[in-house]
Structures are given as structure tokens and as C-alpha cells.
Design a protein that fits this description.
The protein is α+β, with helices and mostly antiparallel strands. β1 and β2 form a beta hairpin.
């Protein structure tokens, strides 16, 4: 007689093998159709880390516990750029990195308004480390939080204007939460 545990174990192993096969098929398929991973310029990564330290932020206070500012930095050949968002939270305040569906809190979302053409993402957002808050959520805390994303600029694209970058968030301290809000900054984008 086969027990439920044995059936569950066999089913899990079967699903794992099917999933692996599926992933291999995707990888092989991508190599046949010429999809390549984008490589981020190493000097641009170094510039982004230096730029993060140079960004000045309006100081948070008890009425506005989150300060933020952003900057864009370019690779030497102007083919790639990094958008760096620097955030500072007032002591004892936090924003939500992730929440479960059972949580009443609002997770932080990065807002970014780019030109419609010519700028292509080549990375996911690099996020600050989050901390355990309770079984329903993880939070961002700290004086210097960084959010960085890298982009490629298509050949022949001339960028000259502004982009907007910021956060939609809910900030809380141990006793209260403020209403969710969006805070954006405008930064000049020019690849000439």
C-alpha cells in the first residue's frame, strides 16, 4: 500500500524534474534565437557607487520621515546609464519591502518615468537589504538606502530632458503609520 507521504514525495520529485526540463528548454531556446544577457559596464558600476555617496538628501523630520533624491550617471561611451535613488528614513521609522496578502500595510514601489523610446532596462532594481518585521512583512530601515537600476541607450538615441524617479510608500514608526504617498524627484537626462 502506498501512503500519502510517498505519493506527495513522488509528485514533488516529478514536478522538480519537469520544472528543470522547462528551464533548460528556455535557456537552450534563448541561445538559438540570439538572446544575450546584457553586461553592465564595470566602470559604470563603480561610478554608481561613488555617485550614491555624493547624493544630498533633504533631511527627514517627524512630519516627513522619508527624504529622497536621485542621480543619473553615464558610462564613458554614453551607451549605458545607472539611475540611483537614495533614501533616508528618520530614526525608528521604516517602509515596507514586502508584505503578505494578510497584511494591512502597503509595500514600497519604485516609480520611474522614462522617455518612451531609446532607453532599455538591462538589470532589475538593486534593493537595500530588508529586515524581518513580523510573519507578514519585511521592512527597509536605515539612514542610507539605495535603489539602483542600469539601462542601455539604443544607438542613435539622443536624450535631453528630465525623467522622474521616486517611491510610492507607507512609512511607519512603532506607534503610527502615515498615509501611503508618492514622492518623486526630477533629474536631468542628457547623453550628449
Amino acid at each position: 500500500m502506498v501512503t500519502n507521504l510517498e505519493i506527495n514525495t513522488k509528485l514533488k520529485n516529478y514536478m522538480k524534474s519537469k520544472f528543470r526540463t522547462f528551464l533548460y528548454a528556455i535557456l537552450i531556446g534563448c541561445s538559438f534565437i540570439g538572446v544575450k544577457a546584457q553586461v553592465i559596464d564595470e566602470s559604470l558600476q563603480l561610478k554608481a557607487s561613488v555617485a550614491f555617496n555624493e547624493i544630498e538628501i533633504p533631511e527627514p523630520n517627524r512630519f516627513d520621515p522619508l527624504g529622497l533624491n536621485a542621480k543619473i550617471v553615464w558610462s564613458e561611451n554614453k551607451e549605458q546609464c545607472a539611475i540611483i535613488l537614495k533614501v533616508e528614513l528618520l530614526t525608528d521609522w521604516h517602509i515596507y519591502a514586502s508584505v503578505t496578502s494578510a497584511s494591512p500595510f502597503i509595500p514600497t514601489e519604485i516609480e520611474l518615468e522614462l522617455p518612451e523610446k531609446g532607453v532599455i532596462s538591462i538589470s532589475e532594481w538593486e534593493l537595500p537589504e530588508s529586515e524581518y518585521y513580523n510573519e507578514d512583512c519585511m521592512v527597509f530601515v536605515g539612514e542610507e538606502l539605495h535603489f539602483i537600476k542600469y539601462f542601455k541607450v539604443e544607438k542613435g538615441t539622443v536624450l535631453n530632458g528630465n525623467i522622474k524617479c521616486g517611491l510610492y510608500y507607507q512609512a511607519c514608526d512603532p506607534y503610527k503609520c502615515i498615509q501611503p504617498q508618492t514622492k518623486m524627484v526630477s533629474i536631468k537626462i542628457n547623453n550628449k
